[in-house]
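Let us practice reading a record.
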Amino acid sequence: MTIFLPSRRSLLQSSGAALVSAGLLQRASASSNPDVVIIGAGAAGLAAARQLAALGLTFRLIEARNRIGGRAYTESTTFGVPYDQGCHWLHSANQNPWLKYARRNGFDVYKAPAERTLYVGDRYVTDAEAKAARNALSKATAAISRAGRRGRDVSPASVIRDRGPWAHVVGNILGPWAMGKDLERFSCTDWYSGAGGEDWFCEQGFGSLISHYGRSVPAELGVEAKRINWNKSGVSVETTRGTIAARAVIVTVPNGVLASGKIKFAPGLPARKVESFHKISMGHYNNIALLFSEDVFDEGEDALINYRSNTRKSVGILSNSNGDYLSLAFTGGTHAAELENAGVAAAVDFGLGEIVRMLGSSVRRKFLKGNYTRWGLDPYSIGAYASAEPGYAHLRRALRQPVGNRIFFAGEACHRSLWSTAAGAHLSGQATARAVKKAL
């Protein structure tokens, strides 16, 4: 049975890209001693670079990976079809600049399904079970919203009282699959600050969309920042390929990297700033990708599927993604981290096993190939995306603040309401570039 069981962002529902020519971008990045060094060529870094060029400032953009896009990455090698290993959902469509960019540049975008197909064991839910699932999700959402609205910076686990048969599904929808964390590990206040809205998909892949946006931005790939020296007159960024002197630096790397201490600061940053790296902490969210020879659920393109489970260790499923017989079984929180450590083969076996429990052993004959993304083990992200731990939502503000008008920070974790999204990263990058222009 297909029922309306909304996402976290749709439950909460109550600027376009800077126009700049390729030539201007090349000229803006030609200086050996630029106005600004940008660290990280993900959505935030690319947006900051384009905005700086439009504002007449020179920059150098360095990226530790051998590609641009950061946690947005689409490739077709693994399965022969566009496969988003990172960002896949265009959240909060009414505020999402990527949707407008996609339409202007010939990408195929479409609304994600608002309904879910629910299973109990190997069968569809009954009407009564579907109603119970909706009620459980509604009550849990109301409890978190009420706490967040009142400024109670506590965990959702401490305010959700109804622990019925759908508790684990509801908990996963609101926690691990949305926030990348179990209900005990994030703040109601932080959760409530997130923007709502519809979700959309890009047929060519979200990573392809961001890569297209950054195709003309000169980025120095395979260059890691090691140390940022700063004072009243400027900054020098020590990298694996020498030192770059500039008037300011924009740091767009994920909080996981900042918390790890892989980039040193001299003099050291204020204690409150450092604390924000650790307490606006990274969660775990990964997809078990499973390619079949046909649409095994027979629910059509991009079907959202959940099943009642007696444990947190379950998956949500986006079946037949883009109509390509590729199912994405998403995992989050502690369970996602455990599967990261178990390895790709173990994660694929788990995801396939959960589908077999619903559809029967014949599904194994239709299974072709699988993969598991492991963002928590990626040295350039060390997690999926960031959210505030209980009691630390106030540190979002500290995270956004520049240091000495020389060190500026941008990225998904720095946006006020579109945190955890590539849209938030993009808008944060633009806003930070404007702040740098004003400061300089």
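A brief commentary: DSSP finds 16 helices and 23 strands in the chain.
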